[in-house]
Amino acid sequence: MASERLQKVMAEAGVASRRKSETLITAGNVTVNGKQIKTLGTKVDNDDHIEVNGIPLQREKLVYLLFYKPRGVISSVKDEKKRKTVMSYFPDVQQRIYPVGRLDYDTSGILLMTNDGQLANKLTHPKYKFEKTYVAKVEGIPTNDQMEKLRHGVRIDKKVTAPAKTKVISTDLNKKTAVVEITIHEGRNHQVKKMFDKISHPVIKLKREKYGFLTLDGLQSGEWRSLKLNEVTRLLKR
């Protein structure tokens, strides 16, 4: 994992708040590999030995979980409206995990859960162009011209979306609906729904089926699994 600021590591380990951790550092109460540190912003690595007031800091083990989020669940650690959140599915996980990015309340599918802030920031940063594939059931049957608009980008929220990969999987002429696959690498608010609204085919149901190379294979809605070592390695190397 990449280096992190000392005060951030201390806060994540539960030593104190980040501000209080900064006070401990500037007061000379923290050592890294036996050397007293008083400079804020000092970076530390996973292998560094940190002590606070002579007591070794126990760093939290990094965990990486792949979760099949059901519909009707909030993708956050807590919800002010007391709705069910993804955290209710991880009662036995000791680490302080959180979702990487978000899935809408009424959207199901693949969601990563971790306590690795560096990786979470990397996967959600636009410059890394991490692909996410969705399957949407939409009203009406999109034409080739409409699908081409999505491939080139449409203007939503005063900004044109990046080119998307799209294909029609199936159509139902009787119900006048279609199932469409779309792959994007942006993460704008309600983006997929807004894109289909733009071509006049509102989303009825939405599921995220792939997150980069990761899929939901072997999981049922509400289930999760730990990522394999080679999967974590691939994510970290991006």
Automatic annotation (TrEMBL):
Database matches in InterPro entries: PsdUridine_s_RsuA/RluB/E/F_cat (IPR042092), PsdUridine_synth_cat_dom_sf (IPR020103), PsdUridine_synth_RsuA/RluA (IPR006145), PsdUridine_synth_RsuA/RluB/E/F (IPR000748), PsdUridine_synth_RsuA/RluB_CS (IPR018496), RsuA_PseudoU_synthase (IPR050343), S4_RNA-bd (IPR002942), S4_RNA-bd_sf (IPR036986)
GO cellular component: cytosol
One Pfam family from the record: S4
Source organism, top-level taxon: Bacteria
GO biological process: enzyme-directed rRNA pseudouridine synthesis
UniProt keywords, alphabetically: Isomerase, Lyase, RNA-binding
SUPFAM superfamilies per UniProt: Alpha-L RNA-binding motif, Pseudouridine synthase
Single annotated GO MF: RNA binding
Residues of the RNA-binding S4 domain: 4-61
Name of this chain's protein: Pseudouridine synthase
EC code(s) of this entry: 5.4.99.-
Family: Belongs to the pseudouridine synthase RsuA family.
Organism: Pediococcus damnosus
